[in-house]
Specification:
This protein has a two-stranded antiparallel ribbon. It is built from five helices and two strands, in the order H-H-H-E-E-H-H. It has 174 residues and is mainly α. Helix 1 packs across helix 3, helix 1 runs antiparallel to helix 5 and helix 2 packs across helix 3.
């Protein structure tokens, strides 16, 4: 049981974190202001700006994304292994697909992601932003809404992919 969870966590965590980063930087396409999360995180670790800081920020962001994907994976495992007495609703689509695509998982993931995003945005604002060594990263205006939205997307994505991967890895494919 642990190996399928770890494999699914790595794959789903990488995919969901990459999509999350894409949405964090998406406003740059229309020249809207964005909060440079990778630069801010890396420079908070290294104390200065540059490619080394950006690399550290990106690496840390993806590692933390994989770690949080493990928590979401436990939720998916619990939902898949729920006893017959607890009847979870099924919102399956594309019945002909080789794997069940149940919308309950990404919807529940979005809800968990909303809570996760609010908590992370508040903690990052209080702990990191207010004490950041570089003044340009002390703005919270773009950080809070972008982090909350990105975490909602992360939650939906990671739960969807966990559900798909764990069906395959646990032999529950239809």
């Amino acid at each position: 049981m642990i190996l399928p969870l770890l494999l699914s966590t790595f794959a789903a965590g990488m995919i969901a974190t990459a999509i999350m980063v894409f949405f964090l930087y998406l406003p740059r396409l229309w020249d809207a202001p964005t909060y440079d999360v990778m630069g801010a995180l890396g420079s908070a670790i290294t104390g200065n700006e540059g490619q080394r800081a950006r690399f550290m920020g990106t690496t840390t962001y993806f590692l933390v994304g994989i770690l949080f994907a493990l928590l979401y994976g436990w939720i998916v495992m619990a939902m898949l292994d729920s006893p017959r007495s607890i009847s979870l609703p099924r919102w399956s689509v594309l019945a002909e697909a080789p794997l069940e695509i149940d919308l309950l998982f990404p919807l529940f993931g979005a809800l968990v992601g909303l809570v996760h995003g609010i908590v992370v945005a508040l903690l990052v604002t209080i702990v990191v932003i207010e004490h950041h060594p570089i003044p340009k990263y002390r703005s919270r205006v773009q950080l809070i809404p972008s982090q909350v939205l990105a975490h909602v997307i992360f939650g939906a994505t990671v739960m969807f992919f966990h559900h798909q991967f764990l069906q395959l890895l646990l032999g529950q494919a239809t």
